[in-house]
């Protein structure tokens, strides 16, 4: 046997010993090397991030439920929620028009999976199309057969099923709305069975006051918040006009410059405290899946800090990302844990808010 064959045998044996000594069967912890999702602890999955580490490692796949960890007795605007940008634009979503789709996607999981993993706000683009309301990733305010994903009711029924199965959870839907049909948007929510969860417009604070307590929202079954980008629908359909209640930073590449957090053009300045909700976007203008594991990690948390200063020292309530599970470890989930820690006790992680926590040196307020 020659030197080359010996080298192969030695390398193979070393690899065998390495794998044999590695964790497996649900024992692998955060950033441990892994071969499959089944190797990782609950709340983690096996993922390869070329920018962050070599090989595959266990990274987070679910959020920390702040309400179960602490309580739900504070106003809604005192908490932070993971938000999926273009939540409907899902890899592999089947064509409903018979025409190959020619547009971008922004997520890998379906709506049910997103919600089950802790996403609590969904960004949807709604259009008039084919005599109905559809979700499309389009341009010019028009949906085309090659930019259409599917009828909005299909996705909204997934939201209804989640709310029905999880009676203590609240979901927010933020619409980039191009529906012009009279009551078209209302009708699709009615048909999806969602009106029984509808948070009434009359209960929404318009001058920067606190929102109702989460516990009261749950008790009253007001567990679906819906915002539209069309101002007139607040009067005509009693659907909240987003910019009356929320400030938002610039989306796309313009919102990804380190140290800068400008407001979106449609939004009031981030410093406007008459709007009691803050949304931070952090995703590129063109979704590049391979880059999102880096975007969703340290750079995201740095931007949240920048936007805190830009928003008159207010932490974000919503953080919107592409491909929400991709990260170098904690990712968008850790970012939301950081926000909830800051909001709820002034610590860098929500776990440090728990009395007796050993997760960090912060002393809860």
From TrEMBL:
Instruction: List the InterPro entries hit by this protein, alphabetically.
Output: PI-PLC_domain (IPR051057), PLC-like_Pdiesterase_TIM-brl (IPR017946)
The lineage's top-level taxon is Eukaryota
Keyword entries, A-Z: Signal
Does Ribonucleoprotein show up as a keyword for this record? no
What is an example of a GO molecular function annotated in this UniProt entry? phosphoric diester hydrolase activity
Output one GO BP term.
Answer: lipid metabolic process
Alphabetized PANTHER family for the sequence: F21F23.12 PROTEIN, PTHR13593
Kindly provide the name given to this protein in its UniProt entry.
Answer: PI-PLC X domain-containing protein At5g67130-like
Organism of origin is: Rubroshorea leprosula
